[in-house]
Design brief:
heterodimer; A: 164 residues; alpha/beta; Aconitase, domain 4; 7-stranded mixed sheet; 7 strands; 32% helix; globular; B: 435 residues; Aconitase, domain 3; 2 domains; 5-stranded parallel sheet; 15 helices; 17% strand; binds iron/sulfur cluster
Chain lengths: 164, 435
């Protein structure tokens, strides 16, 4: 059973330049993560906690292929991202990092600060604050195992070891 | 027996009818045919990386997997993102990238030769029918040459480098038909900005954007590359143009002989999810207001908006044809007082050719400063980075908040024609007034 986390709710079109500003791409992941979303909400990187849930509207992560966008969220403690829709490369990147990215039509019903419990496999979000239960699209079956393994690298590692 | 007759009819129409992108995916996944929505694993013909997404991100991942690249001959590495940057980190990244390339017999290593999406075809790495991945979102550019080429992130790339394969969900197709010929002073950039506005950013999410019609057939390769490049602004997995004589002639010029262009065409009756039609003759120059390419409108809507800087650059808007467009507008004129005008040719070869043709002289005489062939201001780096509160107009592809400089700066996007006209006027201007 998954732990509950606090929701950080943002709107449509949160792009990769906002999540991973280019000026910090050269440096360390820690430094980049500290600037995640700074142009939109300078409080986010300072205050987000381990196990929190990132919630957005349409087109979360559109733009660049930079994997540092979901990686910054993950490094700051985000464990799940929910959105009405995703930029396709961001979606793959998040899953490849072992971070469930779930398509949820009802993210409008979540308020910042709500406590959420997400069951990625079942595709269910429980809003412990409002008492509501929201449905998400479940992950494509071939990706469930990869995410459970912790992402593409541990998944491939397991497969490569098994093949030997 | 009408029922039987109908069955036969259906069988005759549909047996193998596929779009070009589907044909390439079918070939790469070893199948007779594929349908949209299917998830298949494809063998990769080529993997392209740049200095930001390349070795510095891949070395630790490959080490964790305990493997090296599956086939070095199918890997091309091009430095462009941090080229021209002289800070310690950039220098470190450049040498790490160089060392990694030196230890492997890569299919290509092009250091500081220009922007990856332009250098890749220029150096003969692409041909119709190939299945290609690139560690950069604008990798869709390669589709202008009849390839299936898509952008992937660093971990996906590590998977490709380790195994030579990748899963894809076969995309549905958005067919964009451009009918007729563009008016003078109107370019492919105006077509794609108008489409961004019409269907919205991400309006073709997960799809193939296939460009067809007489308007596309009439375009030179540099223009088709703009359509494929900005397919990603529509959210598309790839943008593609079927090869024709123009494609083959261009590729022959870089030493690539194409014998099978006929194989790599969409079937006429291949089903597509959506078709949109652009009337080329009706299209006015477009300008996308901050902070999204979808905020596009005919140039009149923004005419008169004062700017601090005009930028001709990036993989999208600084190819030879783009530079010629700008030169044609500024020829014999001077840019407005107080405006900065920067031109960063997309590759070293383009720079050389533009120099030979006198295009750069024309631009310089008008007041342009020529910058190195690198990503530069497109990602907020280098001398053309916008300062706090500044307003710029750019021939690049994205104007997200803060992308080209300070978070409070504003970027308008347009064709090279419109950027050049705006540099002359000092405010957003219709290039047709300067033809
Ligand atoms: S020029 Fe801009 S859009 Fe093109 S590859 Fe470089 S950063 Fe990306």
């Amino acid at each position: 059973m998954s732990e509950s986390g606090r929701a950080w709710v943002y709107g449509d079109g949160i792009n990769t330049d906002l999540l991973a500003p280019a000026a910090y791409l050269k440096g360390s992941m820690e430094e980049l993560a500290a600037h995640c979303l700074q142009d939109l909400d300078p409080d986010f990187a300072r205050s987000v906690k381990e196990g929190d849930v990132f919630v957005a509207g349409d087109n979360l992560g559109i733009g660049s292929s930079r994997e540092q966008a979901p990686q910054a969220l993950q490094m700051l403690g985000i464990r799940t991202v929910l959105a009405k829709s995703f930029g396709r490369i961001f979606y793959r990147n998040a899953l490849n990092l072992g971070m469930p990215a779930l398509v949820c039509a009802d993210t409008d019903r979540i308020r910042s600060g709500d406590r959420l419990r997400v069951d990625a496999t079942a595709g269910v979000v429980e809003n412990l604050t409002s008492g509501e239960t929201l449905a998400c699209e479940s992950l494509p079956p071939h990706l469930v195992e990869m995410v459970a393994d912790g992402g593409l690298i541990p998944h491939l590692k397991k497969k490569l070891a098994g093949g030997r | 027996m009408p029922g039987k007759h109908n069955d036969n009819d259906a069988a005759r129409q549909t047996p193998m009818s596929m779009t070009l992108a589907e044909k390439i995916i079918a070939r790469a996944s070893g199948r007779e045919r594929v349908r949209p929505g299917e998830i298949v694993t494809c063998e990769v013909d080529l993997a392209m990386m740049h200095d930001s997404s390349g070795p510095r991100r891949q070395i630790p991942k490959l080490a964790e997997l305990g493997v090296d690249v599956w086939d070095a001959a199918k890997v091309v590495l091009i430095t462009d993102h941090f080229v021209g940057e002289r800070d310690e980190l950039s220098i470190e990244i450049q040498s790490l990238t160089r060392d990694w390339a030196a230890k492997r017999n890569l299919g290509g290593y092009h250091e500081a030769q220009g922007i990856c999406h332009v250098v890749l075809p220029e150096r003969g790495h692409l041909a119709p029918g190939m299945f290609v991945v690139g560690g950069d979102s604008h990798s869709t550019t390669g589709g202008a040459f009849g390839c299936f080429m898509t952008g992937i992130g660093a971990t996906d790339m590590a998977g490709v480098l380790a195994t030579g394969s990748i899963w894809v969900r076969v995309p549905q197709t958005l067919r964009v038909r451009v009918d007729g010929v563009l008016g003078d002073g109107v370019a492919a950039k105006d077509v794609i900005l108008a489409i961004c506005h019409r269907i919205g950013i991400n309006g073709a999410n997960y799809m193939t954007a296939e460009y067809t019609g007489s308007g596309v057939a009439a375009m030179v390769m540099d223009e088709r590359m703009v359509l494929a490049n900005m397919a990603v602004e529509l959210g598309a997995k790839c943008g593609i143009v079927a090869p024709d004589d123009v494609t083959c002639a261009w590729l022959a010029g870089v030493g690539v002989d194409v014998a099978d262009a006929q194989t790599w065409q969409s079937d006429d009756d291949a089903p597509v999810a959506r078709e949109i039609v652009v009337d080329a003759a009706e299209l006015a120059p477009q300008v996308a207001a901050p902070h999204s390419p979808e905020n596009s409108a005919p140039v009149n809507a923004h005419a008169g908006t004062p700017i601090d800087q005009a930028y001709i650059g990036a993989c999208t808007g600084a190819k030879l044809d783009d530079l010629r467009m700008a030169a044609r507008i500024v020829d014999g004129r001077r840019i407005a007082e107080g405006v900065r005008f920067f031109v960063a040719p997309a590759s070293v070869r383009i720079n050389e050719e533009a120099e030979r043709e006198g295009v750069l002289d024309t631009l310089r005489a008008a007041g342009a400063a020529i910058l190195p062939s690198a990503c530069g201001a497109c990602i907020g780096l280098g001398p053309a980075r916008l300062g706090a509160g500044e307003v710029g107009i750019s021939s690049s592809s994205r104007n997200f908040q803060g992308r080209m400089g300070d978070a409070s700066s504003q970027t308008y996007l347009s064709s090279p024609y419109t950027v050049a006209a705006t540099a002359l006027a000092g405010h957003i201007a219709d290039p047709r007034d300067y033809l």
